Amino acid sequence: MKKISVRTKVLTGTVAAAALAAATLGAVSASAEATDTPSVAAAVKADTQNKNLAQTTGLTIAAATKAAQATLDAAAKAGQKVSVAVVDRDGVTRVLLKGDGAGPQSPESAVRKAFTAVSWNAPTSELAKRLAQAPNLKDIPGTLFLAGGAPVQSKGAPVAGIGVAGAPSGDLDEQFAQAGVEALGK
Question: What is the pLDDT confidence band of residue 35, given thresholds at 50, 70 and 90?
């Protein structure tokens, strides 16, 4: 029997490892290229009759952007530098625009006003009045009970909120937010 040198053993092992790696890579690549896997087809099929699923109504990103821009335009026309936020029904920010020259606190305030308006389906100026009867409302995280937030409704139900901050008064902020709501009806 012929004795195999260390060099030959190392070289043979390296070739074997390379062949195994190439085979594994080929198998992984082949499975990644499969287009008709059952899990993909099942994920794409939507069962609208399934009672375990909830369907919601919300603004498209295009509609949220349109409302935000209309809000900024109304503020600019009045000579005000504001920030505007549009949140969805769950209070998640969809659009946030900090107007040129708006104060550094205004983006966060706009988001919180929008969140508050959609959460209670009411303008934040009305909600601010409720603090007299329930002062602990202001302790709810993410809320801001100052005028400047307006709900967006579909069939009376809230689907979004628009919040504005940065004008010298909350009444002006809310007027600009309402301009955003009205732009959605056009």
Answer: very low
Inter-residue long-range contacts of 64-69, CB under 8 Å, 24+ positions, other chains counted: 64/88, 64/94, 64/95, 64/160, 65/95, 66/183, 66/184, 67/95, 67/152, 67/160, 67/162, 67/180, 67/181, 67/183, 67/184, 68/95, 68/96, 68/97, 68/162, 68/180, 69/97, 69/183
Read off the pLDDT band of 144 (50, 70, 90). very high
**Model's pTM, two decimal places?**
0.73
Q: How far are the Cα atoms of 5, 28, 43 from residue 38, in angstroms, in the given order?
A: 51, 18, 9
Four-residue CA torsion sign, 94, 82, 126, 179: negative
In angstroms, the CA 153 to CA 175 distance is 17
Residue range 75-104, pLDDT digits in tens: 999 999 999 999 999 999 999 999 999 999
d(CA 168, CA 133): 26
